[in-house]
Every structure is written in structure tokens, then in C-alpha cells.
UniProtKB/TrEMBL annotation:
Binding-site residues for (6S)-NADPHX, renumbered to this chain: A39, G102, H161, D230
Protein name per UniProt: ADP-dependent (S)-NAD(P)H-hydrate dehydratase
Organism: Berryella intestinalis
Domain of life: Bacteria
Domain YjeF C-terminal: 4-290
Length: 294
């Protein structure tokens, strides 16, 4: 249940001296919407800071230029034209897809559903499903798609907060008294029901693949601010790309580093003042601190 800092330290993706950008992992971030463009920037930035060598942001048409300006090192494209071939990690070229941060499932359900479906069907690599895409994943059709992915041996990660987790539980027909389970058990059962790795976020965060479950309790209330979940999702996608053989531990390591970065940001800004951008800024110091346990 506990996840030691030493274990996280061993998973840190320090680059080899002869590496190149693709070898460090590519992350495709399909995120944002006309209503929430900022979520795409937070997630993509966090993926870069978590070591991904190449981050592509696939965003709504009106967001293309603003996202390019916010992140000149991001490769930005229009989601309306997103129709990728099979997205596969090549030899020495790991890949992961993040889908859903800043999706506006209420205003934009058709297009968001198309993008989620494309990500799940075409990505023969880890897919992290976050934000507005979680509500769209809460149905039998998507559960079947996740089961198929698990059967093909590719990991899917769901990152719900308590509200999104309740939607997923209800759609899977989990018992009405389900939320009275201890949260680690709830997380484990969600993972089983969705054939996925579930990262159940909250004051304590639990990460489960349905049989093994880890708890991260280092996070503080400075993280309770809109946008920190987008940061965690970007980090989880980057580490999942780089550690494809152990996505459960990659996501747990992301949650641990996220908590550490929040703490370091609070030391500087107080738990009142921290904003999600500060968590991204402190990620390097969090990595250094965790690396000292190697
Ligand atoms: N800068 C941005 O562009 C941001 C975009 N965001 C995105 O905005 C989209 C929609 O977010 P909304 O703010 O509308 O929806 P929320 O995800 O905040 O809320 C959806 C529902 O869940 C409930 N809920 C939220 N957190 C909960 C918790 N911890 N425990 C129990 N219930 C909880 C809410 O009351 C609401 O009914 C998502 O795709 C999200 O990723 C947010 O991440 C915030 C920042
Ligand atoms: N009181 C708290 N203590 C520790 N961590 C928290 C607390 N409240 C929220 N968090 C963390 O902050 C993040 C919030 O994610 P989420 O609710 O998805 O936000 P958003 O969608 O606005 O980005 C999660 O990683 C969660 O674990």
C-alpha cells in the first residue's frame, strides 16, 4: 500500500547522454475546449517538465494560436483535423496520449466523444483519461473499449476526483453504498470495473490496477485549486510514456512528485497563494529531492 520515495526515485527518467527527443518520450495532449483552453497548456507544460522529449497539443481551433504563444516549444494542432494513424511506441520511441483535461462535455459532447474514442481506439500505447473525458467514459460502450485495450495489453489510466469517480461508479452499476467503502477499496473496484489503472484523487490519492493499490498521502491543501489536476495528468502521461512497462508505478510516482512540488511551492508561496503554475515550477526541485533517495 505504501509507496516509498526510494521506489519513485528509481523510476525517475534521467536522460542518457546519447538520448534524443523521441527517445525521451512523446506525449500527445488532446485537451482543452473553447471554454477551457488553459487546461491544455497546464497539462502540456507539466508533461514537458516531467521529462517528455516532445509534446504535441491537440486543441480546439480558437485555442491554436493562444496555446502556441503560451508554449512556443509545444507542437500545436487543431483537434478538428485530428485523425491519427495507429499511435504506437516505436523501438526506443515511447509514446503516450493524454485526453480530456479541459473537455467541455456539456457544451461540446459530440466532438469530445469523438476525440476520446479515437484516442482509445488508435493509441496502442498508454492513454490517460482526465477531466471532462471521464464523464464520457462512464458508459458501457467505453467500458467495452477499455476492456479491449486491456486485452491487447495496453494500459489506460483514469484520473477521477471524487465527483467524477461517483459518476464512473454509478455507470458501472457498482452498489449504491459503494462510496462508504474505504477509498483504497473503492479505487480498486473502479479499476476492476473499468479494466484500467485508476488514480483516485483527493486529500489522499490512491492508485490501483485492481489488484495492487498504492496510497500517496504527502499532498497538502495548497493543491486544492482549479487546474492542479491538469498538471498531475500531464505528469502522469509523461511518466507513463517513459515507463511503459510499469504504468501503475509511473502514475504513483507522478502523484508523489505532484504532492512534493505542491509542498515546495507552499514553502515559497504559502498554502494560500500557490497556483497550479507554481506546482509546475517546483517540479524540478521535487525531482531533485526525490532523486536524493536513490
Ligand atoms: N484552466 C482551465 O482551463 C481548467 C479547466 N478545467 C477543466 O474544466 C472541465 C470541467 O470542469 P468543471 O469545473 O466544470 O467540473 P469539475 O470537475 O470541477 O466538477 C464536475 C462535478 O464534480 C463535482 N466535484 C468537483 N470536484 C469534486 C470533489 N473533489 N469531490 C466531489 N465532487 C467534486 C463538482 O461539484 C461538479 O458537480 C474539466 O475538463 C476540467 O479538466 C479544470 O481542470 C480547472 C482548470
Ligand atoms: N485537500 C487536499 N489535500 C491534498 N491534495 C489535494 C487536496 N485537494 C485537492 N488535492 C489534489 O489536487 C488535485 C485536484 O485535481 P482536480 O480536482 O481534478 O482539479 P482540476 O480538475 O481543477 O485540475 C488532485 O491531484 C488532488 O489530489
Amino acid at each position: 500500500m505504501g509507496f516509498t520515495i526510494g521506489r519513485a526515485a528509481d523510476l525517475l527518467p534521467f536522460p542518457a547522454s546519447d538520448t534524443h527527443k523521441y527517445a525521451r518520450g512523446k506525449v500527445v495532449v488532446v485537451a482543452g475546449s473553447p471554454r477551457y483552453p488553459g487546461a491544455a497548456v497546464l497539462a502540456a507544460r507539466a508533461a514537458q517538465r516531467m521529462g517528455a522529449g516532445y509534446v504535441e497539443a491537440v486543441v480546439s481551433a480558437p485555442a491554436v494560436l493562444p496555446v502556441r504563444i503560451a508554449g512556443p516549444s509545444l507542437v500545436v494542432s487543431d483537434r478538428g483535423e485530428w485523425d491519427p494513424p495507429v499511435l504506437e511506441s516505436g523501438p526506443g520511441r515511447p509514446l503516450a496520449v493524454l485526453v480530456g483535461c479541459g473537455f467541455d462535455a456539456a457544451g461540446d459532447a459530440g466532438e469530445c466523444g469523438r476525440l476520446l474514442r479515437l484516442a482509445l481506439d488508435r493509441a496502442a500505447c498508454p492513454v490517460v483519461v482526465d477531466g471532462g473525458a471521464l464523464g464520457l467514459a462512464a458508459c458501457d460502450e467505453m467500458r467495452r473499449a477499455l476492456r479491449l485495450r486491456a486485452g491487447r495489453g495496453v494500459a489506460t489510466v483514469l484520473t477521477p476526483h471524487a465527483g467524477e469517480a461517483a459518476l464512473l461508479a454509478e455507470a458501472a452499476g457498482l452498489p449504491g453504498d459503494f462510496l462508504s467503502d474505504p477509498p483504497w477499496r473503492f479505487c480498486e473496484r473502479l479499476a476492476q470495473a473499468y479494466s484500467a489503472i485508476v488514480c483516485l484523487k483527493g486529500p489522499d490519492t490512491f492508485v490501483s490496477d485492481g489488484s495492487e493499490t498504492y496510497a500517496i498521502d504527502q499532498g497538502g491543501p495548497e493543491l486544492a485549486k482549479a487546474g492542479t489536476g491538469d498538471v498531475l495528468a500531464g505528469m502522469a502521461a509523461a511518466l507513463s510514456a517513459q515507463r511503459q512497462g510499469d504504468v501503475l508505478c509511473a502514475v504513483t510516482t507522478a502523484a508523489l512528485l505532484h504532492a512534493e512540488a505542491g509542498r515546495l511551492a507552499a514553502d515559497r508561496r504559502t498554502s494560500i497563494g500557490v497556483i497550479p503554475e507554481d506546482v509546475i515550477d517546483e517540479l524540478g526541485s521535487a525531482i531533485q529531492r526525490v532523486a536524493s533517495f536513490r
